[in-house]
Amino acid sequence: MMKAKIKVTLKRGVLDPQGKAIEHALSTLGFGGVDEVRQGKYIEVELEETDEARARAEVEAMCETLLANTVIENYEIELAR
Amino acid sequence: MKSAVIVFPGSNRERDMVTALHSVFGSAPELVWHGDSTLPDVDLVVLPGGFSYGDYLRCGAIAARSPVIADVVRKAKAGTRVLGVCNGFQILTEIGLLPGALMRNASLRFVCQLVNLRIDNNESAFTRGYRLHDVVRCPVAHGDGNYFADEATLDRLEGEGRVALRYCDERGELTADANPNGSQRNIAGILNENGNVLGLMPHPENFIEPLHGGTDCRRFFEGMAETLEAV
């Protein structure tokens, strides 16, 4: 078994209103020096595949097909046994 | 004059759409379940509003991978008219039949109100019931209607006359105040390259009877009926 940890984030230049709201809340709470807060998604997928290269290719296909909207989002994949 | 409305788990405006189409077209559309593999032979396919799959992952993302979608794409490419309203618009961008994406409203608030729309293309099957730059009142109800596309795509959409509808004030001016969700260039609805696919965030099906408070949007459906009957 392998576990894929997938991070989906908005591309640079795409307005992130949720990130902005968090940024505002942090400054309201007195946390100074906070800038450019971005909110993303974290997805975990357990895989039966044990070959790392094949697992990565499969998770990339999942990201391209469904997990990320590549018009507005980037994704990063981390594989762990 | 045959039409079909696709129903996804979480669609909640399909009955309003059925009522509107029935009222103007004189025949009831067929309701098609998302798990079906083929659509009936129709002149118009509608993806209605709602919250397909609870908007999990992204609005419209899971619905866009439903079994019936392959046939929607096939029919759209063959020239069948496809209309996506609200969640239906989100699904059309997720399918890739329309460019760009619908993001969380810039205000972060769910908006449920009447807006003014300016008709910026009245040559499509969907908008030919209006004159160019008519201002039409129409309800919106969404949390993720903030239209985004890169600058090159926006320029191309405008250059090709594919921005069908924009949020405007009562005089037809494209102001920031009149934009309920922060959409780029006040875009409320866009067409595909061939003009046979329209996606829009507002709900024209909810403003066609006097009981709705106005009938401004009835012309959308009347225009469609005229076009499709002429086919």
From TrEMBL, chain B:
GO terms for cellular component: cytoplasm. It catalyses: N(2)-formyl-N(1)-(5-phospho-beta-D-ribosyl)glycinamide + L-glutamine + ATP + H2O = 2-formamido-N(1)-(5-O-phospho-beta-D-ribosyl)acetamidine + L-glutamate + ADP + phosphate + H(+); L-glutamine + H2O = L-glutamate + NH4(+). The active site is at C86 (nucleophile), H203, E205. It is found in: Cytoplasm. SMART domains: GATase_5 (SM01211). The gene is purQ. The lineage of its organism: Bacteria, Pseudomonadati, Pseudomonadota, Alphaproteobacteria, Hyphomicrobiales. It comes from Kaustia mangrovi. GO terms for molecular function: ATP binding; glutaminase activity; phosphoribosylformylglycinamidine synthase activity. InterPro entries: Class_I_gatase-like, PRibForGlyAmidine_synth_PurQ. This is Phosphoribosylformylglycinamidine synthase subunit PurQ. Part of the phosphoribosylformylglycinamidine synthase complex involved in the purines biosynthetic pathway. Catalyzes the ATP-dependent conversion of formylglycinamide ribonucleotide (FGAR) and glutamine to yield formylglycinamidine ribonucleotide (FGAM) and glutamate. The FGAM synthase complex is composed of three subunits. PurQ produces an ammonia molecule by converting glutamine to glutamate. PurL transfers the ammonia molecule to FGAR to form FGAM in an ATP-dependent manner. Keywords: ATP-binding, Cytoplasm, Glutamine amidotransferase, Hydrolase, Ligase, Nucleotide-binding, Purine biosynthesis. One of its GO terms (biological process) is 'de novo' IMP biosynthetic process. Pathway: Purine metabolism; IMP biosynthesis via de novo pathway; 5-amino-1-(5-phospho-D-ribosyl)imidazole from N(2)-formyl-N(1)-(5-phospho-D-ribosyl)glycinamide: step 1/2.
